[in-house]
Amino acid sequence: MTTSHSDLFATPERQALRTAVEQFTTREIVPHLPQWEDDGQLPRELHAATAKAGFLAVGYPEEVGGAGGDAVDACVVTEAMLAAGGSTGLQASLFTHSIALPHIIDAASSGAGGSRLVDLYVRPTLAGEKIGSLGVTEPSGGSDVANIRTRAVRDGDHYVVNGAKTFITSGVRADFVTTAVRTGGDGHAGISLLVIDKDTPGFTVSRSLRKMGWHCSDTAELAFDDVRVPVENLVGEENGGFYLVMQQFVGERLGLAVQAYGTAQRALDLAVAYARERDTFGKPLIARQVIRHKLVEMHARTSAARALTRQALVRSLETPKTDPSLILDAVTAKNVAVAAVEHVVHEAVQVFGGMGYMRESEIDRHYRDARILGIGGGATEVMKDLSAKLLGY
Which residues are bridge partners to 279 per DSSP? Predict the structure, then answer.
């Protein structure tokens, strides 16, 4: 008897994990989320509380301070948090380490050094004691990673870093930033990754950015002015940073796809509940055929995105991150899931009518938050172009 993908997501252990995360979200997150949105950031205490509950480090190896499990377990955490009323803005901020730490972990596991960095940054972050972020995007561009301009020049046992980064998630609160810098010539072959501590002289948060959505996730513009970073903070090999960044894109894109269909499912659930309780002209809103058809289409798109993404996630457990077919699966899943959530949140607001336009309604938050998913982790248009190359078109 073969095991289906859906069975993998519904083992007794994962069902227990799902229930525990939903309960934690309902108790520790949902009552405070509106205030955190007004504050523009999450409290550091939430990281510690999530770690203590056992959810912050799910999917990370125990040997680096993680809670164990794999990408499927991490997916269950995301799904459950959204199902209970969390948001992608919350997840972007609370789990920023999902894009800040993997490069360090990979470099250490491949024997390219990094055990010191694991002890200094990975373990305390997974324990909820530190906050990390990833600094790649610059004022001059984002998706074109090979053309970053922030430069690091070797000077004895330090690199001297000059440049700027922008749109950096958790950059205001972060204790350190895993930063893409240019240590060599032009193009992808001249890029390295350095872990830069926030309190290093010359490193400043030049601006905290206000956004359309993800209000509880702080986003920063960073400046580096002759910042001296120890050579020991190099992640992997010098001029090998581009490949470390590229290797993490599969996981990042699948993670965003999960956020997308998870948000779509939550928006659909909210819309169904509202349509059942809202009376219009003497009948529940859901009695109207036009509304039922909307809900059916929302369900269909959400289910398709979930199936495609979960299939790719399962493949990623045993397929090298550099496998072109897996890269294509991740890119396709992200674009399909983004298209699904953009349709679903739009229709959900329509079902809610005037209430859907009110800041007090949860659907308002999902509508605003969903817009970034087709931009972050590779814009939809860039993903389509990459898909064409992978397909040989």
Answer: 284
Q: Which pLDDT belongs to residue 381? A: 95
- Which domains does the chain show, CATH number per domain? 5-105 (1.10.540.10), 132-239 (2.40.110.10), 242-391 (1.20.140.10)
- Measured between its terminal Cα atoms, the distance across the chain in Å is 38
Q: What is the pLDDT at residue 114?
A: 65
**What is the model's pLDDT at position 1?**
44
Low-confidence ranges of the chain (pLDDT < 70): 1-6, 110-114, 141-144
Two tokens at 242? 């581009």
φ, ψ for residue 53, nearest 5 deg = -75, -15
The answer to whether the CB of 377 falls within 8 A of the CB of 315 is no
Global confidence as pTM = 0.94
pLDDT of 367 reads 98
Note the pLDDT of residue 340: 98
Amino acid at 62: E
Buried b or exposed e, range 364-380, using 16+ CB within 10 angstroms: bbbbbbbbbbbbbbbeb
Bridge partners for 234 per DSSP:
194
Instruction: Please tell me the distance from the alpha carbon of residue 154 to that of residue 18, in angstroms, as a whole number.
Output: 47
Q: What is the largest CA-CA distance in the chain?
A: 79
The two tokens of residue 25 are: 């979200």
HEC readout, 67-135: CECCHHHHHHHHHHHHHCCCCHHHHHHHCCHHHHCHHHHHHHHCCCCCHHHHHHHHHHHHCCCCCEEEE
Q: Which helix (H) or strand (E) holds 253?
A: helix 241-277
Q: Counting every residue, how long is the chain?
A: 393
Question: Helix, strand, or coil here: 349?
Answer: helix
The beta-strand segments (E) located in the chain are: 132-135, 151-155, 158-169, 176-182, 191-197, 203-208, 219-230, 234-235, 279-280, 283-284
State the residue for tokens 């909307």. Answer: 294
Write out the catalytic residue numbers.
252
> 296-303 contacts: CB < 8 A, separation 24 or more?
297/343, 297/347, 298/264, 298/267, 298/268, 298/271, 298/343, 298/344, 298/347, 298/348, 299/268, 301/264, 301/339, 301/340, 301/343, 301/344, 302/261, 302/264, 302/265, 302/268, 302/340, 302/341, 302/344
Provide the token pair at 311: 């299939």
